[in-house]
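tool=predict chain=A
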Amino acid sequence: MLMGMRGAKHRFMPNRLVFPGGAVERADLAAPPATPLPPHTERLLRKAADERLAQGIAVAAARELEEETGLSLGTPPRLDALEYLCRAITPPPSPIRFNARFLLVPEEAVTGTLGGDGELENLRFYAIGEALALDLALPTRLVIERAQLWLAMDDTARRARTEAPILRDRSWRME
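tool=predict ok
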């Protein structure tokens, strides 16, 4: 799992190990990708997003990956290797809210040198067991555990999924 430490000055989750990512920007919604999303990934993203937003989420993931890590899915991005893992939504009373979708891409689908813009420090790849042994925020831990389950599935089962897990109020539901 590729993760980095958020700096102490960040308002949200300072000094925590997190995945690269961020918000969908207006330009992401209109950016034409080099390749489309795999049909099964698009189908799952479209459970709670229209076609434009589903593609925008994927383009944003590629953009944020490159900005924060220096690794690229190409210019324009190739979306054909992206897999939709899950979604996490903070509870309404939380002072800082997020509605995050977690996408996976195999390491061999990216190019570039690990570095990025400095938003994440100490970027590196963690083995799942190594990551789970660390002091992680609960949502990060639960997403890694979900990735572990996903990796245990064969490709046919992954592509046949009709629902994606969504983390709400510290428990998983299906979307």
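The first helix runs from residue 26 to 30. Helices lie at 26-30, 39-45, 51-69, 128-132, 138-152, 155-160.
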